[in-house]
Design brief:
VanY/YodJ_core_dom, DD-CPase-like, Zn_M74/Hedgehog-like, 37% helix, 4-stranded antiparallel β-sheet, two-stranded antiparallel ribbon, hydrolase, 188 residues
C-alpha cells in the first residue's frame, strides 16, 4: 500500500482494524501510540535488537486517525505556512501514519536534541536504524535529497513497515525510494 501526496487512502477516513497499543506490548512511547499488529511485532524485535547493542529507541509517533492528521496539517499551515506544511506534513488520507504501518522513532535518552530533526540521521540510533531496519521489515521512507520523488523532505526518523521479504526485495532492487520500488514491482 503506497500512500503519499499523490496516492491517498480510500476512504479518506480509513482506519486499520488490527491496531495494537505499543505500551501494551512493552514499547516505550512518548505518548499512547499504536501500530498494526504485524508492524508492532516487528518493532518490538527491532527495538530489542537495538537495545542489545546499547541503543534505547522510543516511538515518537505511530498511527494517527484522519481527524488528528488533518489537525496536524492545519496547524502546520497556520504556524509555519503552506510551503512548510507541504514539505513535512500530510493532510488526512495522505499520511502513512493513518495506515498504522509508519513509526517515527527517536532515542530521547541518548539524543534529546535530535527528536524529529534531521540530525537524527547522524546519531548512533539513526545510523543503526538505517543499517538494520530492513532486517525487521522497515524502510527509511523519506531519504535525503529525494523529496522530488517522495513528496517530503528528509525524515531520518520516519520508518515504514513493508514486511521482511519486501524490505529485502527493496534493498536488493536498488530503488532509492518506496515510490520507485512500487512502480518497478507493478510494471509488467
Amino acid at each position: 500500500m503506497l500512500v503519499n501526496r499523490d496516492r491517498g487512502l480510500d476512504p479518506v477516513d480509513y482506519a486499520p482494524a488490527n491496531l495494537v497499543a505499543m505500551t501494551d506490548i512493552g514499547i516505550s512511547s512518548m505518548n499512547e501510540h499504536s501500530l498494526r499488529a504485524e508492524a508492532a511485532d516487528a518493532i518490538v524485535a527491532m527495538f530489542a535488537a537495538a537495545e542489545a547493542q546499547g541503543i534505547i529507541l522510543d516511538m515518537t509517533s505511530g498511527y494517527r486517525d484522519a481527524g488528528l492528521q488533518q489537525q496536524l496539517y492545519d496547524r502546520a499551515v497556520e504556524t509555519d505556512g503552506p510551503d512548510y506544511a507541504k514539505q513535512y506534513v500530510a493532510p488526512a488520507g495522505h499520511s502513512e501514519h493513518q495506515t498504522g504501518l509508519a513509526a517515527d522513532i527517536s532515542a530521547p535518552d541518548q539524543e534529546p536534541d535530535c527528536i524529529l530533526d534531521t540530525c537524527f540521521g547522524q546519531t548512533q540510533a539513526g545510523q543503526w536504524l538505517a543499517a538494520h531496519a530492513g532486517e525487521y521489515g522497515f524502510i527509511l521512507r523519506y531519504p535525503e535529497g529525494l523529496a522530488g520523488t517522495t513528496g517530503y523532505e528528509y525524515e531520518p526518523w520516519h520508518f515504514r513497515f513493508i514486511g521482511v521479504d519486501a524490505a529485502a526485495a527493496y534493498a536488493a532492487s536498488g530503488a532509492t525510494t518506496y515510490e520507485e520500488f512500487v512502480a518497478a514491482s507493478t510494471t509488467p
